[in-house]
Amino acid sequence: MNPHRKRAKTVDRVDSADSAAVSSESTQMRPFPSKPLSVDRVNSVESSDSSRMRPFKDKILLVDRVDSVESSESSRTSQFAGKVSGFDRVDSVEARVDSAGSTRMSRFPDEVLERVLALVDSHKDRSAVSLVCKEWYNAERWSRRHVFIGNCYSVSPEIVAARFPRIRSVTLKGKPRFSDFNLVPEDWGADVQPWLSVFSTAYPFLEELRLKRMAVTDESLEFLSKKFHGFKALSLLSCDGFSTDGLKAIATHCKNLTELDIQENGIDDLGGHWLSCFPDSLTSLEILNFASLNSEVSFDALEKLVSRCKSLRVLKVNRNISLDQLQKLLSHCPQLMELGTGTFMQELISGPVTEFKNMFSNCRNLITLSGLWDATPLYLPVIYPACARLTFLNLSYATLRSDELANLLSHCKSLRRLWLLDTVGDKGLEAVGSCCPLLEELRVFPADPFDQEILLGVTESGFVSVSRGCPKLRYVLYFCRQMTNAAVATIAQNCPDFTHFRLCIMNPGQPDYLTKEPMDEAFGAIVKTCTKLQRLAISGLLTDRTFEYIGKYAKNLETLSVAFAGSSDLGMEYVLQGCQKLRKLEIRDCPFGNAALLSGLTKYESMRSLWMSACNVTMNACRVLAKERPRLNVEVMRDEEGGDDSQANKVYVYRTVAGPRKDAPPFVITL
Amino acid sequence: MSFETSLEITSELTTADDHGLNLNETELTLGLPGESRGRKLGKKRGLIELKSINDEKNQSNASKASLDDVQLAGWPPVALYRKNMAKNFRFVKVAVDGAPYLRKINLESYGDYQQLQCVLFEIFAYFTVGNYTSDDLEFQNCYKPSFTTETFVPVMHDSFNNSIAQRIKYVSMYEDKDGDWMIVGDVPWMMFVQTCKRIRLMRSSEDINTARRTLSECSVSSC
Q1: Inter-chain touch B109–A374, beta carbons under 8 Å
Q2: A316-368 per-position pLDDT tens digit
Q3: Which of A471, A460, A582 has its CA nearest to residue A89?
Q4: Which of A247, A409, B22, B147 qualifies as a FRET site for A392, CA 20 to 30 Å off?
C-alpha cells in the first residue's frame, strides 16, 4: 500500500498557518510531494498568539523562510533565548518532489514519532511539524513540554490546556510594552491567576513559569507554591502587584526550587525576611537574582543558602550586600557563571586589597558581571582578574567616567555584551571601540534622562567610535541628545549586521543638529544597509520619508517603535504595506489617523499587536476595524476625565482566538 | 541649542497647516507648575510646541523648575527603575584652581565626607601632580587624617614610599542652594548632598583667615 495514501487525508484541524516555517537544518521533514492537503475546516487551536487561518484548497503548506530567533533583553540570555519571534505568512507552494524520487517516509509508530519530535525545541519548527498531518499534529502536541505565549490575551488557558496535555514550562507575556513607561493604567489586566487556576488541574507537574509584564498577586504566588509540587523555576520580569510576602511563600513551599529570578518589578518591598524562609533542606538552587529588591536580607541566611547550594551558577544580590560580604559569598561559590555584586563602595576595607583581588580570580567560570553600584576607581580594580573571561558586563548602575571605563575595559578583551551609563561620555565609548573588538551588543542608558540642561552624556561621535572598532555589533540601544544623519550613515556602513537598532534622541522631534534637516536619511541608511534588521526604534525629527524607506527596505523588520514622528497617514501606510514580517508596531504621538489605521485592515491578523496612543484615531474607525475583523480585539482605553469621546486616544489591537477579554476593567472598551 | 531648532520647526509646521494637516489641533503646550494642566494622559498630542519654554527660559529661576516639572508622559522611554536611579544622582561640578577644565562627580556615590575627600583628592592629584596615576598613590593616603575638613593638604608618596615635599593648601568650598560659598564639612553629610550645587578647590598658600577673606569675596562675584 502506498504509504503516502494513508497520510494524505483531509486534514480537518489545522493550526494557524502563519506559525509554520520549515527549516531544513532543524528538521528532516519534507513535504508530501504528490498528495496535497485539502483542508475542509479550520480551527485555530494554537498555543502561540495566532489567528484563524483562512481555508485553502489544494495547496501544500510550506513556508520557505525561516525567521531568526530574537534575542532577549534580559540579562540572562537563556531565559528568553529560544523564544521564537516571527510568524510567516502562508505562501502557497508548488509540490516538491524529492530528487531521489522516493520520498518513502516509513510510517513510524506514534511513540517513536513522539520521541523524535520531543527533540525539536524551536517553536517555529514545532508549529511546522504540527501542520503536516493529523498524526504529526498529535505527536507534536503530546511531545511538547514548553509553550510560549507572547500575548496572554491571544489565547485562553483552557485552549492551551486542551491542546497540550503535557506541558512542564510556560512563558507568558502580558501588558503592552509601553506599560513600562507608565502609559498603561494600573489594573489593566494580564492577571496570572486565571492561568494558574487552569494549570493547577491541567499541569500539576508544571516546573517552570516565566512571566513578563503580568499582574501577579501574593495570593497567586502562594497558590503557585502550594499547588505545584514539583515546581522549580520562577522568573518575574517587569511584573507588578505582589510584595515580598509572595516571595516568602515561594521560598517556603517550593522544595525543589532551582530558579528564583526577580527583575525590574513593581514590587512592594516589605523587607528582606523572605530570604530567610528558604528551608535548610533546600540545596537545589541554581539561579538566584534579587538585585532589584531594596530591603536588606539576612546575610547569615544568604551565606548559608549559598554554601549549601552547590549547583548555584547565577547569583545577583542587591545593593545592601557590601564588598566584605560579597567576598564571603564568593568563597562559597567560586563556580558561579553569573554574578551581580552589591555595592562597590565601602568605608574601610577590612583587609588588604590583594585579598579582594583574589576573590575574583578564583571565579574561573564567571562570564557575566553586573551590579557594581557606586563603583569608583578605588575598588573597581578588584574585578580585573575576572575581566578577561567576561562576555557580558553590565555597568548600567555604575556612574563611571571615561578614564575609569577605559582602565577597566583594557582588561576585557572577550566582551560580547556591554551595558553602560552615558556618564562615560564619548571618550569612554572610544575606549569601547578600541578595547572590545568582539562586541555584539551595546546599550547606553541616560544617567539623567530628565535634566535638559545637562550637556553630559554621549553624542554621535561616541557611537561612531564604537562602530569603527566593533564591526560585529548587532544590537544597539543608544540614548543621546544629539545625532546627525552622516554619523548614522557611517555607523551603518561600519556595522552592516545590525539586527536591533534602537536610537533614542531624547528631545522629541529634534533634527540633525548640524544640518538642521530631518533624521530621515539616518534611518534610511540603516534599513538600506542592514538587511538583517529585525527591530527598529526611531526618534528625532522624522517625515514620512523615513517610513517610506522602512517600508521599502526593511524586509525582515519584526518590531517597530515610533514616537513623535511622521507627517501624515502615508507614513504608517508605507510601513504596513512594505514590512512583510512586521509583528509588533507601537506608535505614540504621531499624526497618523483613521486612514492609516484602516490601511492595515488585512495585516493585523498576521501581527501580534498594534499600539497607537496620542495619534489621530477616532472611535468610529476603531469600530469599523473591529467589525471588519472579528478575529482581532480592538481595545480603546478611555481617559479618566472627560476628554473628547469621539477620539480614541489609546488603541491596542491584537489577534486572538479567545474572543473579547472577559476581565477588561471599566476603562478598557472592547469594540 | 536644541530649543532654538525646535522652535524653527514649529514655525515651519504652522505653514504646513495650509496643506490641511491641521496640526494646531494636535499641538502640545507646556505650562508652568501650578497651572491647570490640560496636558494629561487623555489629550490629543502631536508635535511639541516649545515656544513657551523659550519664553520661560528668560526668567532666571523659574525656567529650570518648569522644565523639570513638565515632562512628557513616558518619555524618554526609560524604565521606572532606571528613572528612580536617575533621581538619586546628584552630579555637581568640581573646579580646581588652575585646572583648564572642570570635572563632575556624583555625590550620591559617597557615604560621607571622607569618601568625598578621597575623590576630590584624586581629581586634585590628576590636575596638579601630573604624571601620577591613582595606582601610584596608595589607598592608605585616603584614610590618613592628613587633612581636615577645612584644608586639603595631601601628602603624596611615590611608589617607593618617599614623601614628596609638596604641601600646598587647598580649601574645599561649595556653593549651596542659596548661592553662598561655604566651607565643606560644616553641615551633616546628607544635608550637604542635598544643598551642594558645585564644589571648588581653592588654592591657598596662606592661612585660614586669608581663605575666609577670599571666601567672602567669592560670594560677591559669581565664581
Answers
A1: yes
A2: 999 999 988 999 999 999 999 999 999 887 665 455 555 676 788 889 999 99
A3: A582
A4: A247
Query: Is the CB of residue A508 less than 8 Å away from at least one CB of chain B?
Result: yes
Pick from A553, A543, A541: nearest CA to A512:
A541
Cβ within 8 Å, pair B21-A180: no
Cα–Cα distances (Å) from B189 to A379, B103, B117, B152, in that order, read 22, 21, 12, 17
- Answer yes or no: are the C-beta atoms of A270 and A242 closer than 8 Å: no
Mutate: best of B75, B101, B108, partner A, most A CBs <10 A: B75
Measured between alpha carbons, how far is A231 from A234 in angstroms, rounded to an integer?
Answer: 8
User: Could you give the C-alpha distances from B175 to A380, B95, B196, in angstroms and in order?
Assistant: 30, 11, 6
Q: Which three cell numbers stand for residue A398?
A: 555604575
pLDDT band, residue B4 (cuts 50/70/90): very low
Q: A132 pLDDT band (50/70/90 cuts)?
A: very high
Mean predicted lDDT score pLDDT of chain A: 84
Res A71 pLDDT > 50: no
Percent of chain A with pLDDT over 90: 69
Chain A residues 128-147 with CB within 8 Å of chain B? none
Bridge-based pairing of strands A287-289 and A338-340 is unpaired
User: CA-CA distance, A289 to A259, in Å (whole number)?
Assistant: 8
CA nearest neighbour of A54 among A87, A16, A13, A92:
A16
All three cell numbers of B13: 509646521
Cα separation, A390 vs B24, in Å, equals 53
Look up the ipTM and state it. 0.77
Q: Which residue has the cell 504566588?
A: A221
Cell of B66: 518648569
Give the predicted TM-score (pTM) of the model: 0.73
| Cα radius of gyration rounded to whole Å, chain A | 26
A646 reaches B (C-beta below 8 A): no
In chain B, the residue whose alpha carbon lies closest to the alpha carbon of A377 is B134
Q: What would the pLDDT profile of A632-653 be if each residue is shown by its tens digit?
A: 999 999 876 666 778 899 999 9
Q: Which amino acid is at A490?
A: T
| Closest by Cα among A591, A584, A594 to A537 | A584
The alpha carbon of residue A359 is apart from the nearest alpha carbon of chain B, in Å, by 19
